[in-house]
Every structure is written in C-alpha cells, then in structure tokens.
Specification:
Layout lengths: L7 H13 L24 E5 L7 H4 L4 E9 L2 E14 L2 E6 L3 E7 L3 E9 L4 E13 L7 E12 L6 E20 L5 E15 L2 E12 L3 E13 L3 E12 L1
Antiparallel strand pairs: 1-9, 2-3, 2-13, 3-4, 4-5, 5-6, 6-7, 7-8, 8-9, 9-10, 10-11, 11-12, 12-13
C-alpha cells in the first residue's frame, strides 16, 4: 500500500516554515508608475577590475539610519523598499527591510558575520552557529571560504518553541571589483562577493545563491539572489530578486 500523503494542515505548516527560511525574501511594496524615471536597470553593471577594495568597517558601512532600495522585476523598477539599520550591542547591528525581515550581524575590520534572521510574516527566527560570513578581508580575488554551520528555527513569539533545525554549508567567494551605475547618475566602484548557501533541514531543503556589491562608505549597494526550495520531498519553487540602492 502506498504511503499516505501528508494532510493539508501539515502541508500548510511545512510551507509556512519553509517560507521562513528564505533569508533574503522580503516583500516589496507595490509602487506607483514612473519610479526612478530616466533610469534603466540594464545599465547597472559596468567594467570589472582586479579586487583591490579593502574589506573593513568602512566597506560594511554599518551606520544608524534608513536607506532606500529599488526592487527590479523583469528588467524594470517595480517598487521601493526601506532598509533601517540600528546598533544592537557592541559591534552588533540590526537591519530591517520593509517591515518583513530583519538581520542581526556583527562588523569588524576583518569580517562581517550574519548571526540571525527574522521572518515577520512567517513569525520565525533563524539562527546560525557559528555565524555566516558575509564579508572577509582574508579573501583575494577568486579565493573561496567554505564554512559549516548548525541552523535552528524558532517561533518569533515563543522562542522556546522549535520550528525546525538542521545544518548549512556556505561557500563565500570574492569576485573581481565592478563598477555600478546607480540612479544618482554616479559610477561607483564596488567590492563583489558571492555566497552559495545550502540548508539541509527537517522540513525543507534550500539552496540560495546571493551576489552582493559593497561600495566603501555606502555599504551594501546591490544584491542579486536566487533561492531554490524543496519541501515535503516533492514541492519545489524558485525565487529571484535584484535590488539596488537609491542614493
């Protein structure tokens, strides 16, 4: 006799938990027509250069305040979202994007590390041990930094309730520096990193590839991500996103 399929209620719970693990998902607010008139996202990326930009606190640019990002869909600016950053302890910072997700990270001259993420719509907090490297001064152009982590997902409103747990592997690669053309009309030289994160959890498997561009004194300037999720062994979906800073 074939095994019984999970109940509808169980499938819904698993899907909610899997959604909570999309670390860069966010929910962009619908915007009016004519956002950033005269700016074509197709012009965003320009020349590449050998990696020379120093990785330190200046590159991470962790400062209190709000920043606006444009979300690009199908080659056009679809909406604007706000990232708000505030100190959260010694060398710790917390960034919240559009009221949908938040990240706690540490910053030093040597590296920037992601400690946990919060998914507000799915009421889940995901913690990494040890924290995930986002930036590393130890990497030359083309060099890779592989790391392994344990992952715990807990309820946002009841941290004693375990939602899921598992392991993660990540490979952080420093790519060549690249010029980016932002909506202010300026060309900015950016340090470029790529992270390939694979999550092996009880209820879902997630593979996330994220490329980030950091400009000294501006910090995170462009982020491009692709997330592939497989839940219940037979449900799968992919989500892509490109966002760029509006100076």
């Amino acid at each position: 006799m074939p095994a019984a399929l999970p109940s509808a209620r169980h499938r819904a719970a698993v899907l909610a938990a899997a959604s909570a693990l999309l670390l860069a998902a966010g929910c962009a607010r619908p915007g009016p027509d004519g956002l950033l008139p005269g700016y074509d996202p197709a012009d965003l990326f320009a020349a590449q250069w050998p990696a020379e930009i120093a990785v330190d606190r200046t590159l991470a640019a962790a400062t209190a305040g709000s920043r606006t990002f444009a979300v690009v869909e199908r080659g056009a600016v679809a909406s604007l979202i706000t990232m708000t950053t505030a100190p959260s302890g010694h060398d710790l910072w917390r960034s919240e994007i559009g009221g949908d997700r938040a990240s706690v990270f540490s910053v030093s001259d040597a590296e920037t590390l992601l400690i946990e993420t919060t998914d507000f719509p799915n009421r889940a907090v995901t913690t990494f041990e040890p924290p995930l490297p986002l930036l590393s001064s130890a990497l030359a152009s083309g060099a890779e930094l592989p790391t392994s982590h344990s992952v715990v997902v807990r309820s946002l409103h009841n941290v004693s309730r375990l939602v899921d747990r598992g392991t993660a592997t990540q490979t952080l690669t420093r790519l060549d520096d690249q010029d980016v053309l932002l909506p202010d009309g300026g060309v900015h030289r950016a340090a470029r990193f790529r992270r390939v994160l694979i999550l092996d959890l009880g209820r879902a498997d997630v593979e996330e590839t994220t490329t980030t561009w950091y400009v000294p004194a501006l910090g995170l300037t462009v982020e491009e991500s692709e997330e592939k999720v497989k839940a219940l062994g037979f449900l799968s979906w992919t989500k892509n996103r490109l966002m760029l800073r509006v100076p």
